Amino acid sequence: KQEVTQIPAALSVPEGENLVLNCSFTDSAIYNLQWFRQDPGKGLTSLLLIQSSQREQTSGRLNASLDKSSGRSTLYIAASQPGDSATYLCAVLRSGNTGKLIFGQGTTLQVKP
Amino acid sequence: DGGITQSPKYLFRKEGQNVTLSCEQNLNHDAMYWYRQDPGQGLRLIYYSQIVNDFQKGDIAEGYSVSREKKESFPLTVTSAQKNPTAFYLCASAPRGRGYEQYFGPGTRLTVT
After folding, report:
1. Mean pLDDT for the stretch of residues B21-31
2. 3-state secondary structure string, chain A?
3. For the residues A17-24, what does the mean pLDDT come to?
4. Contact residues on chain B for A51, CB-CB shorter than 8 A
């Protein structure tokens, strides 16, 4: 059974810091991995999607990496800003399946001005 | 504007009543999904549909029902058989052939008393 874990559950950093959020999964047979952002009381916003054949994806100040063999993904946020404060969720799509995402419980990030 | 709409944003019901949550998308996506989010438990898949007139149970389908009569619409009914219906419900959709990247609606918060 696929399990997805995100550590730490919460993180507080001063503005301007570079930071890394971690995601681990137990079964390396995944189709893709997706990182989301969720603001309080809102839906999820897709940040980056990494296909199983890819090693990383970049969008602006965000960079996500994928290491299937070790069952890990990281989301790197450069030069953090107070507007980055949110909960970040990672989710894996099981291989051979067409939509069943398995979510981690998220990391809640606070960036202090 | 293209996107996913969910209505209403907040919903209050008395115990024992069935309630239907609306989800509409104009992204021309084939696949649609319903998730439930509870504090400390992350998102869990309720039902999903990859094509009109077809849908599959997710991990927590008991007490819920869905229909997919139109490509754009995927309503979720929370029945009186659902033991703990109070939660935040999120609808998502995804295109085929683009890694099934999922896009989420704004969510409906259901409170049952």
Report:
1. 95
2. CCCEEEECCEEEEECCCCEEEEEEECCCCEEEEEEEEECCCCCEEEEEEEECCCCEEEECCEEEEEECCCCEEEEEECCCCHHHCEEEEEEEEECCCCCCEEECCCEEEEEEC
3. 97
4. 99
